[in-house]
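YM 10:42: AraC family ligand binding domain-containing protein sequence, as discussed on the call
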Amino acid sequence: MERLTEREWARHWQYEELPGLDLLRARYVRHTFPRHSHEGFTFGAVTGGVEDVSLPDGLVRAGPGTVVMINPEVPHSARAGVPEGWTYSTLYPSVELISEIAGAVTSMRGTPGFAETIVEDPQTAQLIHSVHRAAEEGNALAADSLLRIAVARMLGRYGSTLSARTPQASGAHTAALAKQLLEERMAEPPSLEGLAQVVGTSPFALLRAFKAAYGMPPHTWLTDARVRRARHLLDAGTAPADAAVAVGFTDQPHLNRHFTRIVGVPPGAYRRERARTYKTAGERPA
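YM 10:58: structure's back
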């Protein structure tokens, strides 16, 4: 396990026999996750303590026996809900993996998702823990089987078709233009005023429109996007110092701080786990 402090530990990794899936098992006490989102799904099951998760619809408190299900690109933050923190197992499956399982076990049309955020479901929570245990033991048959059983169970009980995103306000188009510009100029982004001028609005109007569209102000979204891109670079074998510069952080310590807060482990530990996975699988990233 990667040690964060004497009381905290975390492991964020991939198992080569489960493509399209990231795994995180951790205990956090003082660590807090800032507002961020994921490209894929998040399924979390707490084994001890309480995790407070802040979502667009409000706060949920996750304790043992509950399962938290977060759809792709939904902004959220998290922190300990009790002084002793929380211990949990989390699965991060890709959209493609969930779509594949949904196509095999449901009659859903469109993009599958989940209508509920938190449920009391000890059996599914145990399945999530068991996926981790099987993967850590190197039992590919059990890990793959338990993963598919868990996802099928969640889809059957809580699944729904995600509605297509439609503009919710007159500023949605402006926010989309601003997001595209930030993606293109991630390493050297403009100021808020400069960004507003380019997309043809005022700074405060852009702040309102961007938060309405993406659940975060532009600077928070940019930090999350930088960490997300840094993860892809680390997956491809880029050194943390080079990844920091490529995505626009001042230096590696800035990447370390933001990466650890959002991903839950430092970038060096994240990259080492990826290297271990590729070595076990007998290949290296391109």
